[in-house]
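Homework-ish question, so no full write-ups if that breaks the rules, but can someone show me the predicted structure for this set?
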Amino acid sequence: MGRLLLIWRLVAGDIKRRPVQAALLVLVIVTTTTTLTLGLALRKVTDSPFARTRAATRGPDVVAELTPPNGSQTRADADFASLRHAPGVTETSGPYPVASVRLTARGIDLPAQAEGRDTASAAIDQPALASGSWIRPGGAVIENGFATALGLHPGDEIRLNGHPFRVTGIAVSTAQCFYPVSRPGVIWLNRTDAERLASQRQPLGYVLNLRLADPNGAEALTSGPIGTAFFNEPDSQSLQTWLDIQHDDFRVIAVDQKALLIASSLLALIALASIAVVVGGRMAEQTRRVGLLKAVGATPRLVAVVLLAENLLLAIAAAAVGIAAGKLLAPLLTNPGAGLLGSPPAPPLPATAAAEVVAVAVAVAAAATIAPAVRGARASTISALNDPAHPPRRRGWVIALSARLPVPLLFALRLLARRPRRAALTAAGLTLAVAMIVASLALQYRIDVHNQAIGYDLSGGGVADRVSHLVYLLSAVLTVLAGVNAIFATWMTVIDARRPTALSRALGATPGQISTGLTTAQLIPALLAAFLGIPVGLALYQLAGGHLQEASPPVLWLAAVIPGTLIAVAALTAVPARIGATRSPAEVLRSD
Amino acid sequence: MEDRAPNPILSATGLRKEYGKGAALVRAVDDVGLAVRPGESVAIVGPSGCGKSTLLYLLGGLERPTAGAIELAGQPIHDIAESALARLRRRALGFVFQAFHLVDELTALENVELPALLAGASPRAARARARELLQQVDLEDRAEHLPSALSGGQCQRVAIARALANAPLLVLADEPTGNLDSAATTEVLRLFDQLRATGQTLITVTHDSRVAATADRLITMRDGAFVDETRLTGGTSRSLSQITGLGS
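A: Not a homework solution, just the prediction itself:
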């Protein structure tokens, strides 16, 4: 008990003594665990946005559409009969009348499909409302992608073939692809209203939704004899399985869950690099404390336990905060926007996933702590007392090369050579962030090219929209994490190099030269990261299902990543570098 | 206490340095005035904590005074921009510290050439000058050694060579023998004696009477202020062995 109390006092004392370092470690672990939690939550949500929407709307397994002469429902019923009674069909809804109309609203005049529905909920394909209310006489519910593209909201007035209708709601469905993948856009009306819009020139069509005992057997039905016979009917318009519709939803852009999976893995990697940098930095400052503890009688084992306990305590506390933050933020990220169902409940995070997050935080903190803790415990008391920092490495060729360069570069290269592992971790973190940005650019370019090709803005493009937003968001999180990493690496360099920095100032280096040197020490790995990140990002995009051969982002876009990265890193590291450069040299030289 | 000799290399008037506020206010340097002529060697002695190191850092522009004025080579340095001060320091001042402050990962030669590189000298010229200085301090055979492979006395000799790299107007030494044993102290004193003989202006802060005895002028400091000043002849008339009693 007494020993536990002693460990607690030593741990709490050190955290209090160096609150900024402790706070930085907590910040990095919170960021890491938040993103890991989000990654786990998002992965679950994005496993199947289509499936989620399909389940919520009781989506059909097969959708059949035909247009009989003069819009005769009797003829339609006869043509649909073979499908209704096909083996494996368990339930149907419809046939629903469909009128081809002209929609005018907000100065826009577009073709649309007005589908007549009942006010009662359908057993199959009941569109799920994103906002507003379901149809009523004189009211219209607009498909979400279509409404987003036209900027329509509940309460707006539209005209269909010149007849006025009030928009009562916005809804999603998986009986057809979302607009503009499927065109013309879909509007649901009261059945009577839809029938009223048909004309001699544009007779009514009909839609029948089927449910099968085995949804995965839908393809067998449509390509089997009954499906082929229906398709060969002169009135037949289309016969689609839910798999066709899902494929069409995804075909707009090939970046899907794989992108998210890869991005989550990258997030985990960059986070690990950040934690290793932070814990490594803390441990470098602990050598003297180890000497002091041993000088007053602490055993090597106690020393190791104290060092380990301190970082693990911070890691567990930060992981708990990170999990809570991740759970809070997850609903904000799971709104898929137009096309598919929005506002799902917050994705549940099972206890095993939470345990995974805590385990990752603890494992990384322990891995980064254990070697220096054991080394510190084994070190002789005198050498620990005399050696306030891990001795820097000597790279003779770097020293010789840097002597030929301007002072800031001389300083930067020598700083990098002192701590090559830290520079490598910074470069690795930045490479991943740059790669993700490049993948985002490739995705954006693909969307732009597609928009130009079809002449529509895909801003309401359902899955494409959702995936691109998620990729951008993950890129932003990665960039923030890489930024925190770069700032911390600079700060660690400032602390680690305080003596050579102060000495250089005493020998006549200006604060400007020192701060430029400290920033340049981060820009060198950043430059490497920018060059490496471009091919890595393109490979990542291709790996995630992108098609570079169809639309490869312009060289200018990719080239802009290099100065962009350098400017961002210079801006992020300027403040810690400036603080390090303007610190009183007398204070440092005297304290040593 | 103020020396009014014409054209001093360094002069300070009404110099004050305070730390803290209110009840916790500490006046480390209190109304100090000093003028150092070219070629003069000044030793400042006093008990630990009397403010002598702080004074040295103020004179070298490593710390800003709370009040007072400092001129180096006729140029005020107490209120100039940090960058201008750094440039002035680079060509006019050389520092020798008690803890040597050599860069661990640089060899003796690389440590000595560092100030010249910072001052913009070509790598070749900086290297040549460093070799020449290491020869002067009798360490040419240790040029490629890292500080960890040198004795304390050798480290301090490297530090002295480094202080001379840009041929400064003034060398400021803070307890240069504080970390050295007797034999190493003698080596350093011999070097200081050589410096003085070549006309190098020198201010040394020390509590070692043997070091103080080599100076032309001895100033005693207590509680941040100068309390006594003695002009010595020993520095110019007696041999080093007589002063130190250690033999030369």
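Now go work out the reasoning yourself. Hint: The radius of gyration of chain A is 32 Å.
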